[in-house]
Amino acid sequence: MSVLALLREELRDFAGYSSARGVSLQGEDWLNANEAPWPSIADGDDRNRRYPDPQPRALVTALAGLYGTAQDRVLVGRGSDEGIDLLIRAACRAGRDAVLVTPPVFGMYAVGARLQDAPLVEVPLTDTEDGFSLEADRVIEQALAERVRVVFLCPPANPTGLALPIETVDRIADALRGHALVVIDEAYAEFSGQVSALALLDRHEHLVVLRTLSKAHALAAARIGAVIGHADLIAVLRRCQAPYPIPAPCADLAGAALAPDARHRTAARVQAVRVERARMASALPALPGIRRVYPSDGNFLLVRFEDADAAFAALLAAGIVVRDQRAAPQLGDALRISIGTPEQNDRVLRTLATLGPR
Fold first, then answer.
1. Lowest pLDDT segment from 35-39, 142-146, 238-242
2. Which residues of 250-280 are buried (b: 16+ CB within 10 A; e: fewer)?
3. pLDDT greater than 90 at residue 23
4. Which of 15, 336, 355 is nearest to 188 (CA)?
5. pTM of the model
6. Pairing mode, if any, of strands 290-293 and 300-305?
7. Edge-to-edge strands of the sheet including 300-305?
8. Comparing C-alpha atoms, which of 266, 238, 262 is closest to residue 56?
9. What angle do CA 79, 126, 336 make, to 5 degrees?
10. pLDDT attached to residue 33
11. Which domains does the chain have, with CATH numbers?
12. Whole-number Å distance between alpha carbons of 98 and 88
């Protein structure tokens, strides 16, 4: 079965909006997009008065090289969030086709489902002695039983730090062939020791991988994400996307971040985060008031507290802002702490040490 059979029928040959930059024309005086004839007073850069390339060629080439895939398999968008939204809207008929998630997990999957009026199917993670775990058989069973059209898996998972072996991804994708898109959100993949699901793209037309430059590449403000999947699926998503999703200055930043020297330096920083993550995971359990520190393959740690309110308040009073997870399912006593610089991490440890004896 073609991957297009998993998309809404009315979108499979949808032409989308034909933008001025989407048409291949050559000329000296560009008067086809109602752009200003002079550079912006704000910066004087003549290029910024022009609409950008809908899919910046140099950036697509660089991302394809980074992820080891073909250029026609890459869609550049505004972070992973736009990819999540596009996939749900392209695949789910409102009120009929469902989205499956595995809470506690990144909240934008549920937001995207609600905006599309797609039913939400939840297969909660199981909290075990070794950390949170995914019950793959239940994911498969529920996806087949509930008319699920998009399955979101997040390895490493936010906020639990859960890693997911590639064999598990492969098994789920095998079972859901012809039934659902299986979307693997790898926002934190650079910090993990697991093999990327990108290695499975040739085996599964319905497998989609989300990547981002926000985390490891430190470009959260630039909002550069990539949807990587079968070329036919990517072509449809391009036609459903807004005309000019990537501002030219953001594309320039991303290109600079993907230059060989920059990638080498980024890899060193990622390794430094992994070292600090291990140090924090070892030091935190010895502090008063901490119930549990979960293993993590991300650039963060999920921590349970005897008094999470007091811990959150103490950190905030010290000028340290962490993520309050207490409203998330199964996490009523938990905070998520991003791995910072060694100095920032030391301040976290010193602050939490003041909470008092066990």
1. 35-39
2. bbbbbbebbeeeeeeebeeebeebbebbeeb
3. no
4. 336
5. 0.94
6. antiparallel
7. 290-293, 300-305, 334-338, 323-324
8. 238
9. 45
10. 82
11. 3-19+54-258 (3.40.640.10), 262-355 (3.90.1150.10)
12. 9
Tokens read off for 92? 């789910």
Q: Rounded distance, CA 358 to CA 343, Å? A: 25
| Distance in angstroms (rounded) separating the CA atoms of residues 273 and 299 | 7
Token pair in block for residue 7: 């998309």
pLDDT at 357 over 90: no
Whether the ω angle into residue 249 lies within 30 degrees of 0, i.e. cis, is no
Q: How confident is the model at residue 20 (pLDDT cuts 50, 70, 90)?
A: confident
| Tokens of residue 260, six digits | 């060989």
* Residue whose C-alpha is closest to residue 155's, from 197, 206, 200: 197
24 residue type, one letter: S
Query: How does DSSP classify residue 155?
Result: S
Closest CA to 3 of 152, 142, 180: 180
Supply the DSSP string of 228-277, one letter for each residue: E--HHHHHHHHHHS-S--S-HHHHHHHHHHTSHHHHHHHHHHHHHHHHHH
* CA of residue 34 relative to chain centroid, distance: 35
The tokens describing 125, both together, are 């993670």
d(CA 208, CA 358): 46
22 has a pLDDT exceeding 70: no
